[in-house]
Model the fold of this input.
Amino acid sequence: AVIASDVGGMRELIRDGVTGCLVQPASPRLLAQSLERVLDDPMSRAELSRNARDYALEERDWNTITGQYSGIYRSLLNERVKQQPL
Done:
């Protein structure tokens, strides 16, 4: 299970309460509380871990990521072609 501060792109990678826990940045007390909750509850920890693994395999595998990047590049190229004078 992942516990992280809610900064940068963490929200894109971690679904709070589903695939991990996000805590307010610069809050050691909240971080410690989240760690204790996950460590003290093996069922919740196993569920978070299982959900995170499933999410990574379904949404963050290389085939999915490369497909997303290819789509972005195609879209940008199409826009560029539309903007060029004939």
The chain has a mean pLDDT of 92.
